[in-house]
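Entry 0007
Protein: SRPBCC family protein
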Amino acid sequence: MSASEFVYQIYIRTTPAHLYQALTDAEAAQQYFGGWGPKSDWQVGSPVLWKMGPDGDYQDLDQHVIAADPGRTLAYSWHRVLPMHRELFASEQEFEAAHTEKSQVRFDIEPAEVPALGVRLTLTHDGFDTPESTMLAGISSGWVMILSSLKTMLEDAERSSRD
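Output (structure tokens):
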């Protein structure tokens, strides 16, 4: 891992197909993103639209699908800084400088080494301009919360289907 990327692994008791479905289903994404979430047809080159809050509309933030291999990989470009990110920055100058930065998010899905653990999801968010990127610092805690919520949602669904 380089200093200008964020990599996070999490094990989820689900199948690769269920995990990929959750990553690509707009309604499911709103659940684990907390009312936000992406929507696309998930074909390479297609736009990725974002619901901007529970009562918001989907907006085009100039993101596009980079890779889509069901049950294995999903990747898309990540938007530049938006007005809602202003509070992440110490100064207006820092905020304005961050507008040129564009990164990418990649989800890699593999069977866990121990089958009882389900799947291993590796999220890599990279392409930041510098290791000091304020957006890199901000997404690091955000992705941990989002993926924890995704894990809970999927594992609760698995438990419910067994009961």
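Curator remark: The longest helix spans residues 134-162. The CA atoms of residues 12 and 151 lie 6 Å apart.
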